[in-house]
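Quick one:
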Amino acid sequence: MNRTFTEAGRELNQVLDAVTVDLTRFSESQAAQPWAPGKWTRKQVIGHLIDSASNNHQRFVRGVQSKGTALPSYDQEFCIRFQAPNDVPWPVLLGLWTNYNRYLAHVIGAIPQDAAAYPMNIGDNPRTSLLWIAVDYVEHLKHHLNQVLGQRFTTAYPNTPEI
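Output:
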C-alpha cells in the first residue's frame, strides 16, 4: 500500500488514465447489463464508485479539518436502489465519476503528510487512520474496476466479495 498522500493521489490519476478510454467503449446496453451473472451492472458499479467518491471526499476534508473524526458508513444497496444509476446515460455516469476522481486525486495529494495518523472512525468499523482511508479508497476503486474490465490492477483485496 502507498505510504504518502502524494503517492495515493498519483496512483488514482494513473488508474484513471489506464481505464477511462476502455470504459467509454461499452455501449449503453452493455453498461446496463450485469458484468457477470447475478452481479451488478457496470452502471451500478460506477454509481457505487460515485457514492464512494462522495463519502470519501467528506472523510478526507473533515478528517483534515478536525484532525480526525467520526463519520457514518453508508448502505450501498440502498444507495443503488434509490439513485437508480441504470436510468442515467452511461456518458453522464462516466463523466461524473472520472471528473470527481480527478478532483479527488488533487485533494488526496494536497493532504499534508502530518495528517496521516489522524484517527478516523467510520460507522462501526475499527478505528483507522486518514492515510489508510485514502489508500483504501484507491484500492477499493481498483477492485471494482477489475470486476468490470477484467483483472488489470493488483489490489489489497483479493478476497473481497464481488457485487
